Amino acid sequence: MLAGAGSGAHDVDLLIRTSGEKRLSDFLLWEAAYAELCFLDTLWPDFGADELRAALADFHGRERRFGGPGGAPRLTAAE
After folding, report:
1. Cα–Cα distance between 29 and 35 in angstroms, integer?
2. Measured in whole angstroms, how far is the alpha carbon of residue 43 from the centre of its chain?
3. 19: nearest Cα among 27, 9, 11
4. What does the pLDDT look like over 29-42, one tens digit per residue?
């Protein structure tokens, strides 16, 4: 799903780029600011369930810092 402005959709958590390219080509630059990037040599027509499972397993093994020095951001109650 592509999120349009004002759609209420969340930002991208994982961006998978197929075909061996190591660039985003101006695709979802703002939405993917804190996304984890996965670059695969697999061409899009050949991308299937096995490649998706491998990308998700890699994603779940990463430490997401959201721009900070370490760990997930701490949430505090609003005053």
Report:
1. 10
2. 18
3. 27
4. 888 888 999 999 99
- How crowded is residue 57: how many other Cβ atoms within 10 Å of its Cβ? 9
CA 38 to each of CA 4, 15, 31, 53, 69: distance values in angstroms, whole numbers, following the listed order: 22, 6, 15, 12, 21
Which residues make beta-bridge pairs with 14?
A: 36
Q: Percent of the chain at pLDDT above 70?
A: 72
- Which stretches of 1-79 are assigned E, i.e. beta strand? 14-17, 36-39
User: CB within 8 A of 32, min separation 6: which ones?
Assistant: 11, 12, 15, 24
Give the list of residues 6+ apart from residue 70 with CB closer than 8 angstroms, or none.
63
How many Å apart are CA 26 and CA 38, to the nearest integer?
Answer: 16
Please provide residue 52's backbone torsions phi and psi, each rounded to the nearest 5 degrees. -65, -45
